[in-house]
Amino acid sequence: MGSDSDWPVMEAAAQALDEFEIPYEVDVVSAHRMPREMIAYGEEAAGRGLKVIIAGAGGAAHLPGMLASVTPLPVIGVPVPLKYLDGMDSLLSIVQMPAGVPVATVSVAGARNAGLLAARMLAAHDEELLARMREFQQELNDQATEKGKRLRAKVEGAASFGFASGK
Ligand SMILES: Nc1c(C(=O)O)ncn1[C@@H]1O[C@H](COP(=O)(O)O)[C@@H](O)[C@H]1O
User: Which residues does the annotation say bind substrate (predicted)?
Assistant: First the structure.
């Protein structure tokens, strides 16, 4: 990420990776403030065994795009909202990449989805991870079904109470 101030948003990506027991590293690598280190990080990432880079930054967020320009690895960009402009500046900086240099951009503050997307990328070549991803999707499905059941019970309960009390 571009700064340690991004961590409160970005830690949701780490949490998603934890849930799938995917090892990761966390670092501050700013394109603007430490350009040489940022280029070295991007150039060395694949050789060090990294498979996917999740890059989160706020404001004029050039970090994801610059990393994508120097690594062959997939880069997922997370727009981090700051005090002004609600993350729109970051979103547009990350999403509008020129053809040839892709960055998979998630929603503003969508760090959890960035972690899940990275897990899916890794699962494409890992049957066990793929099976866990299917389980995870089934859990989401079950939770949504349960929410519907609870809401229907609540609304129907209120309606029959209104009827019984003559309201
Ligand atoms: N967008 C970038 C880049 C970059 O793109 O290289 N480096 C830092 N930043 C962003 O500046 C914001 C404020 O940073 P500070 O809180 O350190 O002042 C952070 O959201 C960071 O990601």
Answer: 3, 6, 33
Distance of alpha carbon 13 from alpha carbon 20, whole angstroms: 11
Determine the Cα–Cα distance for residues 5 and 9; give it in Å rounded to an integer. 9
How far is Cα 119 from Cα 74, in angstroms, rounded to an integer? 12
ipTM for the whole predicted complex goes beyond 0.90: yes
Query: Is the Cβ atom of 5 under 6 angstroms away from ligand 1?
Result: yes
Other beta carbons within 10 angstroms of residue 155's beta carbon come to: 10
- Cα separation, 98 vs 90, in Å, equals 16
CA distances from 1 to 19, 26, 79 (A): 21, 8, 10
Q: Which atom, in ligand 1's list, is nearest to the CA of 60?
A: 1
- For ligand 1, atom 21, the nearest C-alpha belongs to 2
Sole residue written with tokens 């997370």: 78
> What integer pLDDT is reported at residue 40 of this predicted model?
98
This prediction has a pTM of 0.93
